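WARN  no MSA supplied for this record, continuing single-sequence
INFO  ligand: zinc ion
INFO  echoing inputs
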Amino acid sequence: MAEAQGQLKAIRGAVVARRAELIALTQAMVRIPTLNPPGRLYAEFCDMLRARLEGAGWQVQVLRATGAPGDSDAHPRWNLVARLEGAAPGETVHFNSHHDVVPVGAGWTRDPFGAELDQGRIWGRGTCDMKGGLATSIIAAEAFAAAVPAFAGAIEVSSVADEESGGFAGTAWLAQRGWFDPARVQHVIIPEPLHKDSICLGHRGVWWAEVETHGRIAHGSMPFLGDSAIAHMGALLHEIDTVLQPALAARRTAMPVIPEGARASTLNINAIHGGEPEQAQGYTGLPTPCVADRCRIVLDRRFLAEERLEDVKAEIRDLVGRVASRRGFSFELRELFEVHPSMTTPDAPVVRALADGIAAVFGRPAALVASPGTYDQKHVDRIGGLKNVIAYGPGVLDLAHQPDEWIAVDDMCEAACVMGLALATLLGRQSAEAAACTA
Ligand SMILES: [Zn+2]
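INFO  complex generated
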């Protein structure tokens, strides 16, 4: 206990000494608008970070995901991986962050890329999700290495492209190339904004599909001569609302998903379009008067660890088929995107190490949660084959993707202490034993 207290004191001291550096690093990141879409300034961001990390003794590689989805010469997908070696062989702890940020949107009262420091917070797009988390993990690693210079093993930090658009040119691309092979990396922490006192064990699954109903075009003044694809879609949406939605809401998961409302299966209609275009060839106006021969929706189905993806797909195919045969229309169903759920067990080593850190820093047990949306954990788990992976970071989940996004400097410092203590648990023990041997 006394040893643990001493360790917390040393790591906290090293973090506090780096507070100004943590602020400056976060600001430097936020001031590079790495917007996705389209994937701007990834090279500039990686160059800035490479210079910063090499100056502090990290070995840095900057890698382009050439040919991966989204990569082009206009918007190349660059990723950075940095490594800090310990004093002896041991395990590797890897912090995986993304440097892309979502579009700014309306409603800001601050400069989205000004990274203004005010009220103890840094303001701007990407502060919370998740450049603040990336900066925190770097400062945590450097504070730990200063407090425990004889540590065993290695610390890695990755800063990757395109998490916000699926991660195919970022974490998935690295995973396909063995970067998360359990033989070289044993623990992965993803500093996504899931609250400084919570550990996120995983996320629900996703299935996106597009459904198009078919009708027959006719003059809008004589609708009885046509067959409206919009009317068919209306019937389909009614069936979804009255039959499918109640069934999904009743399906509950044992995953500790936050917020509580996401602890069930959900379905959202992300988009709908039917009839003639309202915007064509630069013309913005009214659609021509026709009975709609096409109507299309995009379904966003979030499913639980307890459900099978095949069943999720079959349930929707059956529903669409049922309505189509009842009303006599044809349809197309196109699959767009799928993600399997990921869920790490609460007794995994990386979870226990972070939980001990949270208890030491905050004096209360860590909350174990799961995310309503997906993030890069799926790629580390499903492609990399590494199960010892979770999300832990200082941001407040509700602020992600919002106007006037911010990160609190105190939250970053506290989360850096938690990360530093977890590093001490995972990498410090062997060095303590080695020290005992040489004593
Ligand atoms: Zn994120």
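The chain has a mean pLDDT of 95.
INFO  checksum written, moving to next record
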